[in-house]
Design the sequence.
């Protein structure tokens, strides 16, 4: 018997106000100390570059990029739990890097928990490296967790 393999349709687009409820739900399911609905709303209102990844028309990931003074900062990048390890985080990161490059940004920064091994592996594969440590940056179950500060130099020909 021959079975047809259905490949999901994946698209990245700008975040809209109507996406905030599902994004807030994904955030709550993904993190013990999630951003609030209001923080996402404020990012949209502030004009940050906010994107969503849709799989077959359903939002399953999002990213937020702040650009100012010649540098960029990835504020949030998240994929719904059921859709992790499928390359969606990398696709969104590639889009964020493209948007940063087209904004004439030379450096792009982010903070990541040292305990988030999958995210660290992705960022390292994409050319980010650690430049600093922020002590007690993240709220944690038992007090606070440090953040690794990563940076990537952007050029017009890199990925």
Sequence:
């Amino acid at each position: 018997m021959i079975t047809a393999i259905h490949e999901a349709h994946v698209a990245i687009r700008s975040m809209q106000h109507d996406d905030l409820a599902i994004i807030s739900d994904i955030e709550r399911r993904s993190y013990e100390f999630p951003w609030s609905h209001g923080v996402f709303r404020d990012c949209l209102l502030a004009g940050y570059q906010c994107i969503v990844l849709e799989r077959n028309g359903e939002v399953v990931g999002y990213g937020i990029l702040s650009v100012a003074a010649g540098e960029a900062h990835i504020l949030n990048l998240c994929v719904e739990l059921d859709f992790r390890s499928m390359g969606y985080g990398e696709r969104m990161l590639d889009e964020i890097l493209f948007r940063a490059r087209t904004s004439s940004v030379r450096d792009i920064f982010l903070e990541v928990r040292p305990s988030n091994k999958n995210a660290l592996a992705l960022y390292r594969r994409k050319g980010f490296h650690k430049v600093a440590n922020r002590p007690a940056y993240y709220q944690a179950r038992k007090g606070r967790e440090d953040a690794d500060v990563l940076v990537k130099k952007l050029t017009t020909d890199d990925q």
Residues 60 and 80 are 5 Å apart (CA to CA).
